[in-house]
Design goal:
Number of helices: 6
Structural class: alpha/beta
Distance between the termini: 27 Å
Order of helices and strands: HEEEHEHEHHH
């Protein structure tokens, strides 16, 4: 019987970067599921030090081997200001963590996250507490499905 250890994959983190919050999701050790983990509150658009420190802490605590960051492309496939801000964030993140960072198209993930929370019975006023981490989970799940050829 193959040991459980032999089946271990590397844990991956998904990030949904926003001007006020950063949604965080992480995969299980087998690389099968993406679970919403937490929402990091930001004190301002240009304030990243605490957010980067928290992400770095999670990478160490959870033994993360790769980070997937949602790329907020416009519906027409063009990249706007949010894409530029996200890429700047990724450059800063690269100086804080020593794991590969990949980009994943995140179009419609916030709408999908809102639908999931609605179907789960989460009241509209409470959704903002969870929507970013659920969106990060969707970004991570879509990346994992693509990597696993699903």
């Amino acid at each position: 019987v193959e040991s459980f250890r032999g089946k271990m994959k590397e844990r991956v983190m998904g990030l949904d970067y926003g001007s006020k919050t950063i949604g965080v999701a992480i995969s299980d050790e087998l690389g099968l599921t993406a679970q919403p983990f937490e929402t990091i509150e930001r004190s301002g658009e240009n304030k990243l030090r605490r957010s980067l420190a928290r992400i770095s802490e999670i990478v160490k605590e959870k033994n993360i081997k790769k980070i997937v960051v949602g790329l907020p492309m416009n519906m027409d496939g063009e990249s706007g200001e949010r894409v530029s801000l996200t890429l700047e964030f990724v450059e800063k993140l690269k100086t804080r963590v020593d794991v590969p960072i990949v980009m994943q198209d995140e179009r419609l993930t916030t709408m999908e996250a809102d639908e999931i929370l609605d179907e789960s019975g989460v009241k509209k006023q409470d959704r903002k507490l969870f929507i970013d981490q659920v969106a990060a989970g969707i970004i991570l799940r879509e990346y994992m499905e693509k990597e696993n050829g699903q």
